[in-house]
Design goal:
Shape: rod-shaped
Largest sheet: none
Strand content: under 5%
Length: 51
């Protein structure tokens, strides 16, 4: 769901507190996954350079 639609739903009270917490947790876990992928890519690049 696009950010603007989420903000509208939140401001209009269409999402419960539980829904909001779940969205926050999903956002955080997605960021952590992306950061971990970046770290793995950097490690692979460093290994290639060493070889």
């Amino acid at each position: 769901m696009p950010c603007s639609r989420l903000q509208t739903a939140l401001s209009e009270g269409l999402l419960s507190q539980c829904d909001t917490v779940l969205l926050i947790l999903l956002t955080i876990s997605g960021r952590k996954r992306r950061e971990e992928k970046r770290r793995e890519e950097k490690r692979r690049e460093e290994k290639r350079r060493e070889e």
